[in-house]
Amino acid sequence: MGPSSAAGGTTVLELRGELDILAVSVLSDRLDEITGTQGTDLVVDVRAVTFIDCAGLSLLSRARYRTRQRGGRLRLTGVCGGGSVARLLRMTGLTGSFEILSDETGDDDGGGAAGSSGSPGSTAVTATVTDAAGTAVA
Q1: Residue 5 carries which DSSP code?
Q2: What gap in Å lies between CA 73 and CA 109, rounded to an integer?
Q3: At a CB cut-off of 8 Å and minimum separation 6, what does 102 contact?
Q4: What is the pLDDT of residues 15-43, one digit of tens each?
Q5: What is the number of alpha carbons within 13 Å of residue 5 lying toward its C-beta?
């Protein structure tokens, strides 16, 4: 399962559960692999993230930096007003640092947010970061 974005396609990474230091330790290599490609178009779906701490925020920030450094694009979707990711972005003043796709309108500026409305070159990757022990399963 070595996900890579097709030329001109979008990689959609769906995160679920708790995005804490344990999850980050498992997910960081996977995310580095995805963001290490030149010109990656990555959509990170965080709607199913139930908890995020500074380690999770650091993971997202690193992914954003690595993607931009290689001429790519990282967007977040599922950042709901009352959700844990939206709350942490607001508390840290980082909301404006991330490109956030609108959940309601489907965002017309570059393809489907969840890969369901177009983007024939989309690659979907699901990373489940939830279980009783708090470990991540990628």
Answers
A1: P
A2: 12
A3: 113
A4: 999 999 999 999 999 999 999 999 999 99
A5: 25
